[in-house]
Specification:
By secondary structure, the protein is an alpha+beta fold. The chain is built from 12 helices and 34 strands. The chain folds into 4 domains: about 160 residues, Serine Threonine Protein Phosphatase 5, Tetratricopeptide repeat, CATH 1.25.40; about 260 residues, 6 Propeller (Neuraminidase), CATH 2.120.10.30; about 90 residues, Sandwich (Immunoglobulin-like); about 120 residues, OmpA-like domain (60s Ribosomal Protein L30, Chain: A, 2-Layer Sandwich), CATH 3.30.1330. The longest helix has 22 residues.
């Protein structure tokens, strides 16, 4: 950027292709002296002082075109786009030929205010002057022309007239006179983790906890994760227990920058552990992000064999607790350019990232893709202006509500350097709204917490959405994207699985479900209600969405080959008792038939219908009747 600035300032001193009205040699000497001082201040990085001197220079000679151009360039560097535009236009009015090439930076400042049609017009005016095709000006103009055409077309297709982009500085409790960046939050939105650069040199992790509607004073993260070396580009797992981050040039590193992990313990955050030679290569790995179930690790890498300079990869956690071989996200996501800053939302389906290889507004733009039922990714969608600008965009974090976004910027109200801001994400580029379930899995007899597997499956397409492992005391947290219906199953060897479902098709309220789950040891007379086996009214054909639960039952029987079970059907009291008895028998037999079709011996299975004779609740309302309409499984012997 400094080279660009110096070009913009000094260009005017050595520009000889000008027509007559303007002659730099005839400028007032005091104006030239002030102008020279301004250039020196600009070289020193003191742009505000330089702007003041240039204003004085213009006051001394109001026809000093070079001073107008340089002042416009300085204001552009200060991101004061309106002032930059004003002084470029005053320069153009003085001499349109001498200033022709400045239509390029002028257009960039127009685009900085969202005036993409005017920016495109300015670039077309520059190209009409026929700059040499191989020149830097021509190449830059063609690049900007494509960007502005994209922006104009995007605006026509995405009106979004009611959207207002108003980033809110998170305040002095979070931000300081140092730079803060890479925000990430726990799923409940109550703990913010970020990187702070101390004295413009050492990077450490800080956190702030929410107290009501306010954020508490930030402090360095406790424990051993912060060191005298740099730690950065971190992401905290939604449950607040794992922290993945980037460490560079460390003794245990495999390449220039590697990915590390730290665990939350009773003594604070543990000493960082290098994630090893599968995740890390001899090249560069950075910007890790964990999926909400902690089974997938997304990251950016320069390793060989990719599509461009930097690509995005994912590694899956294996049953043995080790990370698998990283997989390139493929040509839908990665390009011949650089893709970086991956962020997978709590919905576990929407991935945000930056790219300079896809058409956008000029530099690194923010895009998103969605994961399909088969794990494939949709086409990238640009987040659009004003989230994306002509500058390079960086990492983005979106809360579980799907609308509150966090990012780092050096806006005019910054406390110093980069600050962390929040803003409301435009509705059409939001991820799926996500609720969550938390609780404890325990032994029904002893009440002791037990580690187990918790699975959430989309009933419509049978896709496993999330699978989490509880901690050693049985605690779990699982995300629950709204808009779909889910089977919820908890499994532990030696126990009956737990079955439930969540109907989220029509829910949009903010909710936290707390579900503590007692697992029954495998023993005679232990039973479980199979809540994800479905039939149409008065029918006994098993609906397709029941397959998820039935296959779990098949797995249980295969893992315990001596187990004998009874499948029982139950109804409410609507209709004739004799008809209800027949219906419940037929439904139980339908389940047994499915199990037999999966090679479970018929001798291990008993089907029995009880009709309306064993209600769990009253039949006076629909809620009670729904509880009574059920399929159960009971262990007869093992």
């Amino acid at each position: 950027m400094k080279k660009i600035l110096l070009f913009l300032i000094y260009f005017s001193l050595f520009h000889f292709c000008f027509s007559q009205p303007y002659d730099p040699g005839k400028i007032n000497k005091k104006a030239v002296q002030l102008y020279t001082q301004a250039l020196e201040r600009a070289q020193d990085g003191n742009l505000v002082h330089a702007a003041g001197l240039l204003l004085q220079s213009i006051e001394a000679d109001k026809k000093y075109v070079d001073a107008y151009l340089s002042l416009a360039g300085v204001y552009g560097q200060l991101k004061s786009h309106l002032n930059s535009i004003k002084f470029y236009e005053q320069a153009f009015a003085l001499d349109s030929n001498y200033t022709a090439e400045y239509k390029l930076p002028y257009s960039i400042n127009l685009a900085g205010t969202g005036e993409f049609e005017k920016a495109l017009q300015a670039i077309n005016e520059l190209l009409a002057k026929n700059p040499p095709p191989g020149s830097a000006t021509y190449k830059a103009a063609i690049f900007r022309k494509r960007s502005y055409e994209f922006a104009v077309d995007y605006a026509k297709k995405n009106t979004n007239k009611n959207y207002v982009f108003t980033p809110h500085n998170m305040g002095a409790a979070v931000n300081s006179t140092e730079s803060e960046y890479f925000p990430s939050l726990t799923i409940d939105g109550n703990e913010l983790i970020f990187t702070r650069r101390i004295k413009n040199f050492n990077e450490d992790f800080y956190f702030s906890r929410k107290k009501g509607d306010e954020w508490g004073i930030s402090a360095a993260m406790p424990g051993n994760v912060n060191t005298s070396e740099n730690e950065g580009a971190q992401n905290i797992s939604p449950d607040g227990q794992w922290l993945v981050f980037t460490g560079c040039n460390r003794r245990d590193g495999f390449g220039s920058c590697d990915i590390y992990i730290s665990y939350n313990t009773a003594e604070g955050w543990s000493e960082a552990i290098n994630l090893g030679g599968k995740i890390n290569s001899p090249q560069w790995e950075s910007q890790p992000c964990l999926s909400p179930d902690k089974r997938d690790l997304y990251f950016a890498s320069k390793r060989t064999g990719g599509y461009g300079g930097i690509d995005i990869y994912v590694s899956h956690l294996q049953p043995n607790g080790k990370w698998g071989e990283p997989e390139n996200l493929g040509a839908e996501v990665n390009t011949g350019g650089d893709e970086s800053c991956p962020f997978i939302h709590a919905d576990n389906q929407t991935l945000y990232y930056t790219s300079n290889g896809l058409q956008g507004y000029g530099g690194n733009d923010l895009f998103y893709v969605r994961k399909g039922p088969g794990g494939d990714w949709s086409k990238p969608v640009n987040l659009g202006y004003p989230i994306n600008t002509t500058s390079d965009e960086g990492t983005l974090f979106i809360a579980a509500d799907g609308k509150t976004a966090y990012y780092a910027s050096d806006r005019s109200d910054s406390k110093g350097g980069l600050d962390i801001y929040s803003f409301e994400l435009r509705e059409d580029v939001r991820p799926y709204k996500t609720l969550w379930v938390k609780g404890r899995v325990f032994d029904k007899k002893t009440t002791k917490g037990i580690p187990s597997s918790v699975e959430l499956t989309d009933l419509a397409n049978k896709q496993l959405i999330t699978k989490v492992q509880t901690d050693e005391t049985g605690n779990y947290l699982i995300t629950l994207p709204v808009g779909k219906d889910y089977a919820f199953n908890v499994n532990r060897k030696g126990y009956l699985f737990y079955s439930d479902n969540f109907s989220m098709s029509n829910r949009s309220t903010d909710s936290v479900y707390e579900k503590n789950i007692p697992l029954q040891p495998l023993e005679a007379n232990a039973s479980v209600i199979l809540k994800n086996i479905f039939f149409d009214v008065n029918k006994f054909d098993i609906k397709p969405e029941s397959q998820v639960e039935l296959d779990i039952l098949v797995q249980l029987l295969n893992e315990n080959p001596s187990l004998r079970i009874e499948i029982s059907g139950h109804t409410d009291n609507v209709g004739k008792p004799a008809d209800n008895l027949v219906l419940s028998n037929n439904r139980a037999r339908a389940v047994v038939s499915y199990l037999v079709s999966k090679n479970i011996a018929a001798s291990r299975l008993t089907a029995k219908g009880y009709g309306e004779t064993k209600p769990l609740a009253g039949n006076n309302d629909e809620e009670g009747r729904a509880m009574n309409r059920r399929t159960e499984m009971k262990i007869l012997s093992q």
